């Protein structure tokens, strides 16, 4: 099931995406929210008539670094054998079609295509065998990074937490085997990254167990699982697209702050 969050005529709602062809997709509006039992209203609107929003508004985005060995190597380091977490604030989140604002304090902006895990229920100290029970589904993410700032500052708060640095979308896929999905990033139609979630050093289960041992996760919280090799620069006017097998494509344009 694909669950989207959208706005139409000034109203915000969740809906289930139906259809196979992009130009024929429709949304069946959900009664309520997707973090509990819900019903479909039967009221359907064409996807082309709505504005897609970030599929969730997380209280926190927990991101894991150096979780692909080839990416760690291209950055001059080694993969993190034990999960290595950092935060991106809720104010960094935008949706598919929204603009990535190139920050004024950086001269080197990079894309990082990632599988994002969306938490579906409040949980803490989740045992490995129950991880699947606390996950609502999966979406595409772009961990946009001010690489020069990341190198310069020991803390990554500004480098990875600036406004618009966490595009998510286009929707949440709830029925997905996450173990071996192709993860791709293109810039202006040219492929930059291509990997698979099977290359993760620490699995989705590892990451959920690790972070939930330290803190409570709330419905709508997001976990970013790391990026494969091929990260690279973004320029003013670029269109960057993250595509994950079985989910869809997250697309954003980069615009320099005036």
From TrEMBL:
<keyword id="KW-0378">Hydrolase</keyword>
<dbReference type="GO" id="GO:0016787">
    <property type="term" value="F:hydrolase activity"/>
</dbReference>
<keyword id="KW-0479">Metal-binding</keyword>
<dbReference type="InterPro" id="IPR011234">
    <property type="entry name" value="Fumarylacetoacetase-like_C"/>
</dbReference>
<protein>
    <submittedName>
        <fullName>Fumarylacetoacetate hydrolase family protein</fullName>
    </submittedName>
</protein>
<dbReference type="Pfam" id="PF01557">
    <property type="entry name" value="FAA_hydrolase"/>
</dbReference>
<feature type="domain" description="Fumarylacetoacetase-like C-terminal">
    <location>
        <begin position="60"/>
        <end position="255"/>
    </location>
</feature>
<dbReference type="InterPro" id="IPR018833">
    <property type="entry name" value="Rv2993c-like_N"/>
</dbReference>
<dbReference type="InterPro" id="IPR036663">
    <property type="entry name" value="Fumarylacetoacetase_C_sf"/>
</dbReference>
<dbReference type="Pfam" id="PF10370">
    <property type="entry name" value="Rv2993c-like_N"/>
</dbReference>
<feature type="domain" description="Rv2993c-like N-terminal">
    <location>
        <begin position="1"/>
        <end position="55"/>
    </location>
</feature>
